[in-house]
Design goal:
heterodimer, A: 134 residues, Rossmann fold, 43% helix, B: 730 residues, five-stranded antiparallel beta sheet, 27 strands, 23% strand
Amino acid sequence: MNAKRILIVDDQPLVLRVLRLALERADYVVETQPNGVAALESILDAPPDALITDIEMPEMDGRALCEQIDLQLPRRNFPIFVATSLTSLEHRHWSNSVRDLAFLEKPLSARKLLTTLARYFQDQTVIRAKTTAS
Amino acid sequence: MKSAISNLDLKNYAQLAGRMCTGITGLAICDAAGALLDATDDRIKGLVEQLFAQWRESDSTTGQLRGAQSVGEDSLYCFALSAQPEIHVGMLVVGVSKQTSDDASKSGTDIFDALMPLSVCVSNDLKLNLELDAMAGELSERYEELNLVYHTDDQVSYFREGQEALVNLVQNCADYLDVGLALLRLRGKRVNITSNAQSCPIDLDLITRALDDGIYDQIQKMREPLIVNDPNVSKIKLARRLPYKILAFPVPGIGNNIDGTLLMVNDLSSPDFTNSDKNILSVMSKKTAKIIQGSYDGLTGLLNRCSFEHMLESSLAELRNTISEHCILHINVDQLHLVNDTLGHEAGDAVIANTASAIITELRDSDVVARIGGDEIGVLVHECNIEQGTRIAKKLLEVVKADSIAWGDQKLEWTVSIGVATMNGSKDNAEQVLKHAVVACDVAKERGRNLVQAYGKQDTGLKEREHHMHMVGEVHAALRDGQFTLYGQLIEPLQAGGEWHVEALLRMTDKNGEIMPPSNFLPASERYQLMPEIDRWVVEQTLKTLSMCHTDDTSDEPELICGINLSGQSLCKDGFLAFVIDAIETSGVAPDRLCFEITETAAVSNLTQAQEFIAALRSQGCRFALDDFGAGLSSFGYLKSFDVQYLKIDGALVRGIAEDPVAQAMVASVNQIGKVMGLKIIAEFVESTAIRSILKKMGVDYAQGYAIAKPQPLTEILSAIQAKTAIGAT
């Protein structure tokens, strides 16, 4: 089985636990990291199929993590989903320069997250099929 | 379970094991199926599978493989991990170097016993982890419930939004409760929505048939949710025949009614419906009810106006590029106000509700029926031309006429008038089409009620009515946006000692800035009772203009007397008299500068009110003129009834006096009788100097018309006079 590997980065164990449970139930392989530094290391080691990260974290926050990923992996081919509880649009400005990044509202609905991921991977399959066909 | 075990941190346990026993070489953990989850040592990793097989064959009661398994240089100890007593969820393997164990000259059992607390510790951690997972799962569920409730919108303001909201709601229910099929069926509202098919196959036809064969009625009757987890033991016979689990909720309607059913269906292998599912569905059925209320009328249960207009719009859009036609019926209950006034609004409501249900029974399911006003019902009949529409309307007319309700000891019967219009793929918009039907309905009412009138573009009655309706909108806009303006026409005294008058005239500026004569908008304003509002404006503005152009009080020059027209509607309007008195006082304009003109017809048809009105303002010092005398059903007899000082002879008589001796004789006799009664006579429509000189010779007091002065803005006239007076004074 070609299970998709999802990396979840959050400093709150409860969030990690809830999301891990939901994603594992849907047959994803889940890796969790508590901050940006550990996450970056893991990504450089083996990039996931999708990254879900919080913004406010110790050591390296979500924004810095995204910027580092962009810098160190300019040809990244996995999407980044940034979970945020902040409502202002201002903090989303920085994300404009980061490609293939989407925001998810916190608290994350596991159901919504699953739908989002399923849709993303489905689209990917279609794109890949089309590319292969052409 | 898997995640709970894999969450265990083996490195920490390895350290702990090292403190408990010397020579620990490593730890490994596998799940209940023997799959390796984690290992701190590669050698042990490779041996887990083999050990697991042995372990399975060992003492099943304790699950422990007592004693060491000697593998190469290591002795391996296996411990069953359990979260609950006697339920093994995995295996912990601890490797101990043979050399160490030999040196300590401990038996395998000693080492096993020494390591036992470690396995208890890991099991406990596992138990806690599982508990936490369960709590996280529960929390997540509750959050999803909240999410479902929050994100299922029930605030809708029109039909399409409502329909979308219902579709979303049904799909959300299916997704959230993870059921094979969710279905919303509101028969009376013609709503039938099903969720997208899930992986589990449910026979929709079978469900729909069972619903219609009785489950639907059963739920309506029970007014309670129906839960069937085991069809074999269900009290409901029909449910016993269905190979499904069912959770169904009644959708509450207005008052005590049940509008329909929200139904979840699952196959028998799915988990049972729980109380939590029931609670969620209860909220969802209430949300459904709220959405319904947003697009339907509370009294009749029909669609509301807003929804109807949206349906019209979308039907119109569908008609584009086709040759099809749809019919619109505008149904108005005849003289509902009489029922309301005599028997109260409850009776009126009963009439409306009965009309609605009578109409609904006659129409097809695909027809759209809506309550579009207090006493108005709109119907959209698809694929229908004007002839067919008229036939349907006539049928409805009969049905309503045959209907009756008992109200106290009375039998209430009523009729409707119906306007029929069609719409096709042309450029009409929904508003226009509906207006056509309204116009036709108005004409039906005018032609005697209990009638059907089809809208036809050639019908002049309809055309005029349509123009009136258009003008009503324009007049309202003019009042609001200040598009009315005052003109004035000077009236010349023909005899010595007479003073100049000016008649204030109303003009309206249209959208293009063109000045519109009153004949364009006054008939519509009269028909739709807008005259009091217009008259108020005229009185207010005239007084304002007069007070602004007030001449010097010390001047000997008598001030211009200003004529103000008043309609019959205003004379009868409560509060209008008080308004005029108050307005005069506020303006500071001398009452004797004002001459109110009332048409003979208005005065005669509102005799008492007119007399009171005139008396009240005469006592304030105002003057009065009887306008358009000779135009209507003139009777000299009435002249005595009104305490007026001026008589204005209708222009139609005056216009011809130069050529027509009869006209001249009529004017002369009106003049003569007026004089006898002590009235001053004003002749209108003096269009030539010839007419003027005849009138002067005849002894008529005043002349008004193009030969004297054309109408021009009132302010200009007043300013000119003010300037003249000012020059005269210096």
